[in-house]
Amino acid sequence: MNAQSSPRTALSGVLASLMLAGSLPAAEESVPGQLILRFDAPVSGVEEAQSLYDSSGGPVGVIQRALVPGIDVYLLKLGQPGSEDEALEQLAADPLVRWAQLDHRLRMRDTQPDDPQYGSQWNLEQVSDADIDAAAAWDLGTDSLDALGDVPVCAVIDGGFDMDHPDLVANIWRNTAENPDNGIDDDGNGYVDDHSGWNAYNDTPDIPDNYHGSHVAGIVAARSNNGTGVAGICWNSPMVLVAGSSSQTSIVAAAYNYVITLKEQWLASGGAQGAHIVSTNSSFGINFADCESGSYPLWNDLYDAMGALGILSAAATMNNGSNVDQTGDVPTSCSSAYMISVTNTTPNDQRNNGAAYGATTIDLGAPGTQIWSTYQSGSYNTLSGTSMATPHVAGALAWLHSVAPAAFCEWNRSQPDSAALYLKQLLLETVDPLISLQGQTVSGGRLNLASAAAALQAFGGEDLGLRIENLPGNRLQLSWNTVAGAGAYQLQTRQGSDWITLLETSATEHELPLSLGRGTYRVVALAE
């Protein structure tokens, strides 16, 4: 148990020695003269944030905007570019500031389109069964409503979308509390005229057109069974579309903040406003960046903030065939338990050679090679990359909520963070094991929508596996139901294709350090 209890610590040591040897490519650059900082106590707005910064005695700077006000994250513009290191050093010693970081530049996780080669979507169903078994899963339901009448939603953060595509337009989330084009924030959520999503690039409701985002959105929720085009994983479910897939961390933070705002609005209004966002999809990052180095604190804070609201974030890893365990990557080497990192599998159930991997950092694989989906100008096309793999996971999460038993939906309402962690655990536990992913991903397998749905249908029964709760102090609490006739329980974790027993106990709960939160676990009841 001790040898397995701190894989992140051991990994950090390996990263340090490799970086000293100079064998890793450098992480991306940052925006000159800009910092992102988080205050340690609640801040009422830009004016108070500016006052607090001025009292720090750091280099002259202007607080430009609140990036994620719910967690007191602000964007700082320094008076003189080139003073970033001095400012970071001074802010690190300021008790009013929890952390400060550079506004790192990110790299898009997309590839150039191939010529169309497939008239069908092998990723959803094919004879050789390298797919996610979507057809079998859809037998359980294709409705947009969950068992309590709520509408689970996936938020897609990308470069833009074809908002008029005939296979997308019916599944775009609309803010019915907002009157479009009247210049008024009708619902008071801080976003004027956000009737159909938000553009985080320029803080307007005008969504730009983009081939990549259109393709990703179609994988998540192209309108299905409508006699047109392709099928999405979610047949009839709305997507919140956010333009914010950027080369700047600050813009990505602003995009995620829109997601946070809508979910907080939904929770506060009892579902009358906002959106019941349960997953996000993103395909951007910083290649070869060590998320645990202390230079990228925003990322875990963002995913944790969304996770506290019941949102799991699917993130695409790099398209370069690297071992993320050794090279690092932001965000897919980050430790937030609410982030799911995804690599790309092929029609032959192999990991695409151009996709990154990592036994402790990359959670699972999903089809991402030669994927046929919606495109610009109302068309369809084939693209490949981890960007195409990730929306399979984000869409699966939203769809799973729609077929979950009422007991799960009720739990999700009362404890959205715990329900989210449970759903992540279930998704990793029900993958199709693949030799090509053994020792290369946490789960050792590829997404299987039907298997995940079947496991979720058992929620609330005597054979319920595991519930996971995030606790203060970087701990996870795992708990499970009492099973009649059981004399003891074994808590097991998967290593490759094998299940290893961590402990045997008569209790029905156990705590683990958060560093183990990306493992795959199960509970086995032993007869008396």
Structure description:
With 528 residues, the chain is an alpha/beta fold. Helices cover 26% and strands 24% of the residues. It has twelve helices and 24 strands. It has helices at 7-21, 46-54, 84-92, 134-138, 211-221, 249-268, 297-308, 324-327, 386-403, 406-414, 416-429, 449-457; strands spanning 30-39, 61-68, 73-78, 97-104, 107-108, 152-158, 198-199, 239-243, 276-282, 284-287, 312-316, 329-330, 339-345, 364-367, 371-374, 380-383, 432-433, 445-446, 467-471, 475-479, 486-495, 498-505, 509-513, 521-527. The strands form seven sheets. Strands 7-8-6-9-11-13-14 form a seven-stranded parallel beta sheet, sandwiched between helices. A four-stranded antiparallel beta sheet has the order 2-3-1-4, with helices on both faces. Strands 5-10-12 form a three-stranded antiparallel beta sheet, with no helix packed on it. A hairpin with a 5-residue loop joins strand 15 (371-374) and strand 16 (380-383). Helix 10 (406-414) packs across helix 11 and helix 11 packs across helix 12 (449-457). The radius of gyration is 22 Å and the shape is globular. Mean pLDDT is 86; it is low at 1-27 and 110-119.
